[in-house]
Amino acid sequence: MLESQVMELEKTQEQQFDERVIEIARVAKVVKGGRRFQFRVTMVVGDNHGKIGMGVGKANAVPDAMRKATERAHKDLHPVFLYGTTIPHESMGKVGGAVILIRPASRGTGVIAAGGVRAVLEAAGVRDILTKSMGSANVLNVVQATFMALDQLKSPKEEAARRGKPLEALLPFWERKKKNG
Length: 181
Prior knowledge:
Layout: H1 2-15, E1 18-31, E2 34-46, E3 51-59, H2 62-75, E4 78-79, E5 91-95, E6 98-104, E7 111-112, H3 115-124, E8 129-135, H4 139-151, H5 156-163, H6 173-180
Parallel strand pairs: 7-8
Antiparallel strand pairs: 1-2, 2-3, 3-4, 5-6, 6-8
Helix pairs in contact: 3-4
């Protein structure tokens, strides 16, 4: 009886995650007899409340690759600092030739991003953000650069304490304007 309750609890916890397939690519390995084809699946998993992970899975069939990617993404889950529906400050991530710039945006702006960047940010729970993708358009590098930019975000409370300033002094400019005037 207890095992079935544990299994049911695990299923409900897994259902809380937002799983998004970013790319399904057919890759080839050249061997003596010709080419061996496999499928590579890139997937992002998030809880829409600041936890996010990425996984890449390869297999001879797409469902197996998706399963592997999902498992790896769940193992890779790590927290991201958010401020309400946006991020606390500007950040930039660079992987290979792909450069991603993310900026906080005022409430109601929406997610101004495309492709893999949008999937990553929405899975993380960001609802208002401005992004700019520069350099390479390689999907894998763009997604990893987005993760790097999110990993560079600092907690507003910890940063305010470190600088010896009140939290209000570190808020995005539109929040300061509301509080002062």
